[in-house]
Amino acid sequence: MLYILFGLTFLAGALIHGIVMYLPMALHQSWHQECKAYLQSINQPETLAPADTLFKIQLPNIKWRRLLPFSSFFWKEKLTTKISFLTLDMVLFVSSLFLFYHFDNYAYWASSLLFSWVLITSSFIDFEHQILPDELTYILLWAGLMASCSNLYTYSTSAILGVICAYLSLFLASLLFKLIRKKEGIGQGDLKLFAAIAAWVGVAQLPLILFAASLFSLVFILLRKIICHKECSAPVSFGPFLALSGWLVLLWGSELTSYLFL
Fold first, then answer.
1. Is residue 117 part of a domain?
2. 154-170 pLDDT per residue, tens
3. Which of 120, 134, 257 lies closest to 202, judged by CA?
4. What are phi and psi of 177, to 5 degrees?
5. S-S: 198 plus which of 14, 166, 192, 262, CB 3.0-4.6 Å?
6. What total number of domains does the chain contain?
7. Which residues neighbour 73 within 8 Å (Cβ) at sequence distance 6 or greater?
8. Where are the beta strands (DSSP E) in the chain?
9. Looking at 59, 86, 102, which one is the last position of a domain?
10. pTM to 2 decimals?
């Protein structure tokens, strides 16, 4: 069974490498072309190019060897890039192996692998590019709702209420922050990711996830200020901390709740 796990994780690693390399570039090109088309439609509507030529995304060719997990050690890139991808691969394989031994039921194991892999991919992209692609968040959302139909981690009513409450709570928090500070504090991607995680863990675990994510982000900001001498006002991606908190709560939510709040 370990050979199957290793094979699946290796294929997932190759897919994740491709996603984190191509998806941010594709999104940036798409947004740039949409803005260009909008401005062109206002200024010169008669010269607007056809849609099939206007929204044509061109991505660079990437050698297949760069898709292989742990291949970044041999890349001719900056050391920080090598370390980033090596960290990604290590987290992917260690978490997959841990989930294999944590869950005895194959349904829980397979679903938790999907949950973990999507969170790892989204977190890496958010940390590197400060964006959380909807394409990944929606996969996580719908997979969580389908899992709740089988009562794997929570029941469907709790999952649906969790999605609603998670999105509204962060939306109101971001709106309040914007009214007070006159600037954006929480991105729309964070709202959607929090809602997608809520579909897996249910409404009762939302305070714990938000508390843990806030605590992790605060510790990260303080450590960054001490080690790197950067100001705390510099942008910090909240998505990775939401992902880490959601992953921990999915595995030990009841235990953590009873330990912290009872």
1. no
2. 999 999 999 999 999 99
3. 257
4. -65, -40
5. 166
6. 2
7. 82, 86
8. none
9. 102
10. 0.87
